[in-house]
Amino acid sequence: MTRETDQELHIGPLHQVLLAVRDLDAAIAFYRDTLGATLIASFDPPGMAFFDLGGGTRLYVSSTVEGEDDGVSPRENSVLYFRVDDIDAATEAVRSRGVTIEGEPHIVFTDSAGTFGAPGTEEWLAFFRDPEDNLLAFAERRAAE
After folding, report:
1. Could you tell me the strand order of the sheet in which 135-143 lies?
2. Which sign, positive or negative, has the C-alpha torsion 22, 28, 34, 35?
3. Distance of alpha carbon 35 from alpha carbon 105, whole angstroms
4. Which residues pair with residue 9 across a beta bridge?
């Protein structure tokens, strides 16, 4: 049953998972060398690495989670990012269902070199929480404006 104010919403596959780590180099070695995950890119600073887990899902390890002096925030130890076709519509759909949006849709990366997909595309994210206060995100790749 839907309410009249509901907008249609269909999340896509799991796009990315964030794991907070204390030692970026050790995490890269573990996921790349021990588990065999393909390292897509690392950026240090600020302390981020991305791995291809197959099926369009990325693992994002970060040693710099905002808001904590030691670089690891237990509250944000993991974040699920869901791919959507239209981040603005998806954000409005969950907002219409009473979800508080913590981060409005915004660009986080312009992929000029094609590191994560087609060159010249942008990665957009919007953040919100589930009923257990877990941080979730919508992710959309779109052509640069």
Report:
1. 38-43, 48-52, 58-62, 14-20, 78-83, 135-143, 121-129, 101-111
2. positive
3. 33
4. none
| Paired strand residues for 50 | 41, 60
Query: Distance between CA atoms of 45 and 91, rounded to whole angstroms?
Result: 30
pTM flag (> 0.85):
no
Closest to 76 (Cα-Cα) out of 141, 142, 17, 139: 17
> Taking phi first (over 0 means left), then psi (-120 to 50 degrees means alpha), and beta for anything else, what does residue 54 get?
left
Tokens standing for residue 10: 């269909």
Domains recognised in the chain with CATH numbers: 14-143 (3.10.180.10)
Torsional class of 120: left (φ above 0), alpha (ψ -120 to 50), beta (otherwise): left
Tens of pLDDT along the chain (145 residues)? 344 445 678 888 889 999 888 889 999 998 899 878 999 999 988 899 999 998 889 999 988 755 444 443 444 678 889 989 999 999 999 999 889 899 999 999 999 999 998 999 999 999 998 876 878 899 999 998 7
